[in-house]
């Protein structure tokens, strides 16, 4: 079974992380498939909205640490970089259905979504500093603008997690639902029924004030992230994380 499922229902495309036995942790191959899926959808006139979802009990545990250590994404043409670029530049409505853990990129990708619906079980975290790394996906720019500097600093610097109620209050998600995918699909249907060029132009206008700034920050983040990945500090943090995981 493919680890990324791409299915289309009328004019709505659903991209599903399909590695539930690993809490949908993302590998470099999965990132590359995600990037291609989004880029293909951007150019497909039959697709009017895209939903991101996770199979099983979790949205995604973020990066597969073992794969990450074996193949650190330090090049600008890596699957990770391509996926983040496809998120930044995706011109159509992007909706997310979240349940369980949304860790690391599982949270930062939501900052690029237009509407996020989460289950009450959803748990969000961006533990980059815990792993000796720095924020990515433009989150060091987007998250403070969303929640305020001090709250963002606390969350980034402590690696603490927060629940769906907090995420709703912060504005990271739009709605809490016991059936997040069904609700996300309803919203996607309502959006898809609108005149498509008006929707694309509206999204472009909504993003216009921050797009170039986010692109510049993402480039800086990626350079620092790549340097951090090769540092002794990150290696020690990764090994500590893996040993904790192995003993739990």
UniProtKB/TrEMBL annotation:
Example of a GO cellular component annotation carried by this entry: peroxisome
GO terms, molecular function: delta(3)-delta(2)-enoyl-CoA isomerase activity
InterPro entries: ClpP/crotonase-like_dom_sf, ECH/Chromodomain_protein, Enoyl-CoA_hydra/iso
One Pfam family hit: ECH_1
CDD domains, alphabetized: crotonase-like
Primary localisation category: other
Protein name: Unannotated protein
Record organism: freshwater metagenome
């Amino acid at each position: 079974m493919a680890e990324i499922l791409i299915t289309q229902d009328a004019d709505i495309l659903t991209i599903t992380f399909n590695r539930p036995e690993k809490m949908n942790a993302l590998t470099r191959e999965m990132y590359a498939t995600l990037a291609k899926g989004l880029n293909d959808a951007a150019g497909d006139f039959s697709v009017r909205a895209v939903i991101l979802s996770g199979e099983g009990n979790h949205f995604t545990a973020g990066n597969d640490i073992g794969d990450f250590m074996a193949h650190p994404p330090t090049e600008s043409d890596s699957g990770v970089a391509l996926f983040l670029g496809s998120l930044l530049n995706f011109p159509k409505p992007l909706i997310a259905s979240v349940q369980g853990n949304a860790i690391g990129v599982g949270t930062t990708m939501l900052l690029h979504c237009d509407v996020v619906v989460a289950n009450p079980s959803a748990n969000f975290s961006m533990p980059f500093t815990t792993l000796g790394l720095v924020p990515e996906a433009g989150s060091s720019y987007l998250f403070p603008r969303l929640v305020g500097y001090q709250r963002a600093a606390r969350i980034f610097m402590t690696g603490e997690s927060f629940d769906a109620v907090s995420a709703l209050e912060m504005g990271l998600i739009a709605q809490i639902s016991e059936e997040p995918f069904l609700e996300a699909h309803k919203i996607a249907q309502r959006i898809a029924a609108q005149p498509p060029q008006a929707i694309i132009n509206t999204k472009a206008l909504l993003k216009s004030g921050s797009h170039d700034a986010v692109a510049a920050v993402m480039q800086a983040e990626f350079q620092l992230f790549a340097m951090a990945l090769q540092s002794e500090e990150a290696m020690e943090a990764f090994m500590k994380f893996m040993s904790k995981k192995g003993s739990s």
